[in-house]
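Appendix B, record 7
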Amino acid sequence: MKQIAPEQRALPILGTVSPRVREPTAEGTVGMQRPFPQPVYVPPPLASRPHAAEIGQWLDTLQATPFLELVGHADALRRQKHPDGVVSYIVDRNINYTNTCVTDCRFCAFYRRPKDVEGYVLSYAEIGAKIDETRALGGVQILMQGGHNPYLPFDWYLGLLRYIKEHHSIHVHGFSASEIELMTRVTKLPLDEVLRQLKAAGLDSIPGAGAEILVDAVRDVIAPKKIGASRWLEIHEAAHEQGLLTTATMMYGVGEGWADRLEHLVRLRASQERSLRRGQGHYTAFIAWSFQPTHTEMREWDIPHGTGMDYLRTTALARLVLDNFDNLQVSYVTQGPKLAQLALRMGANDFGSLMIEENVVSATGIDFIMPESEIRRIIADAGFTPRRRYQDYTPWSEGDPGCPCCSWRGRAAA
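Structure tokens (predicted):
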């Protein structure tokens, strides 16, 4: 595991992140206790896939187009969408409120089973202290995610959101589609009602986590207990109908093929088209990253893991396919700063988050940490102008009254 200098772990300075909640241990991490035997993955035939014709056309394009030509087209589309030469980023913090989870994703090193001695649930006060720390560092948002903890009632989530808005007001970008699905099962309420109550209590936007690869045949291998691809899309589109903004992600390198990645991208494009047609919420950005196997149940599988070239090709392809997405984020957290910098010339226009705290990826031993000054230098050295932003991609300015995309709540703008 990469050793982090002590001064880079000390708060409160904006140039750093705080320690993980737990370091992975052999006693707690399921993947270190019992590596899962590798199943045989049989890719679905092209003709059986949703949007088969479009996937086939993109496969032909991918095979026929040299790498430099592909990334050149992606960079041209990026320039068309963002002619001002700005690369944005946000200052926020990932707060993982619980690591207790019953979904048993084979690619995850973060979760702990119920009754595990390393399991935890943060109290409202602990979460509030993290938010105060974030605001003191200039943070404008928290990303709230956790395991699928069946012992937390729906009122716990609603109470948490109300507590945050009343006592530590900040933009809450929270709860993945699969966490929201768990809430519908616990409450036995319709999805729309769960989303309505979450929004009323203080939820401002929804992250794209849990997408992995939006192909059920792949999900059956790496996360058989998780919601299916169509349900993931349904939850995001239902959130859009409530006027919420969401993001979309892809974790690749789990044994899938290019047809699987393209099905994922094409389905996202179609989902965005439906939401834009309805005129309510939509996806603000897409983020891709490669699977990190260390400490997971998949660590001994014989699968080709993502290389740097693979990441750049995936980034460029995503920019071209997702032509109705305004923003493409890099993932320096998994790819490192140099590849992230290259990706800015291959379709990406956003450097993601400063991440004052991050626990999930770092549980695999990947721990890229950069101060804000380094992020700005990397962006500038690539020939762009760095600029802080809010969740809805409104530029941040010193002295702003608050987050414009949730200012209607009153105290959120205080």
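Remarks on this record: Residues 1-21, 360-366 have pLDDT under 50 and may be disordered. The longest helix spans residues 258-278.
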